[in-house]
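Data availability (excerpt). The following record was deposited with the supplementary files.
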Amino acid sequence: MAIKNLKVTLRKPGDFAELTVPVKNSGTALAHVAYVSGFDGILRCEGIGAYKENDEKLICGDINNNMASVKYSIYYDNTLLTNGLSDIRDINLKTGDTKEVKVRLEYLSTATKIPNETVLITLPEIDFIFQQSM
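Predicted structure:
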């Protein structure tokens, strides 16, 4: 399963957007998560108008998203996944079960400034690779 080209606009601190995707194991064997990408991907910002560069930097920070006013999180079955997840192969999906993958982007409530114009935020590609256990 891949989530690509997800674009969001958040206007003020406290705003958030969530995308929830159901994942079902329709196979005949237990499946496990073999790989998840996108934990440490870079958000891209696209502003408009005279304050374009300042607005982009306010929302996305520098080229590595340092000092960004927004952050994103990836969840599987309501469990926050982190880049340091060591037991990812222990995340299973039984035959016939459906679980949810959720991506949440939020404008941090601790942010003190808002952009002058709309800034379109593009999330990095997020891939969930499931393999059936034999």
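Summary of structural features: Helices lie at 52-60.
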